[in-house]
Amino acid sequence: MVLCLKTWKSRSLPGFSFFIFNCVDLLVSYLVSMFGFSIVIPIYNESKNINVLVEEIFYSLREYNNFELILVNDGSSDDTADVLQRTKKSFSIKIITNKIKFGQSFAILNGVKNSKYNTIVTLDGDGQNNPKDISKLLEIYFSKKVLSLVGGIRKNRKDNLVKIISSKIANNVRSLILNDNCIDTGCSLKVFDKNVFLKFPYFDGIHRFLPALFKGFGKETFFIEVDHRPRISGISKYGILDRLFKGTIDIIRVVNIIKKNKQNISEKLNECK
Q: Do residue 260 and residue 189 come from a single domain?
């Protein structure tokens, strides 16, 4: 802020522009700090990735004080539970444990319901999302008041060819039908409004349709390119067939959810006439 005041006194055009940009940055940082945010990460058999990921997150967000990190252990069968407890001794994390594997969508829902802030950040537990991008999404989310969701678009994906091709097919089909303006809805790195999210009827697979649901409920969304890294350890836990075949059924479900919401809004408007 002192820098802003000194620049303001100079009154030169370049100085004034620098003043404006610095004050905007300070304001965004203040808003993030004031309102806070909850990071929710679903974990399934990621024991070798957890500690490194948590350490990266806290280092990347070292300038932020008002946030919580929630790790949801989705019925892992490896030593994830033990690693989480050891990690908790070094970092301030909240652990939620599902007794059995309910799936990524339920794990996210469970974490969101147990969060204390209205701004939610999600990312995968495999370390492929770069925690450095979290602040970039947060700055956009808080600087544009109309936004209810900011999502990442994975640049230069570091997955195997089969996974990339199947994902592109699924994204093209989904985008064509739902018109969600998102070319990579499978990117787990997102920032969104908790209250809006909890209004959606839950179904297994909902996490892959958040852009369509937010837009379908009349909310503004925005997408930006983010880093994507190779998986260092472990294997992908949620299969390709699940994305392709179950995704088709889920598209129909999402169309019906959005249609029903619009009908409810129309009925309420007619009642007010």
A: yes
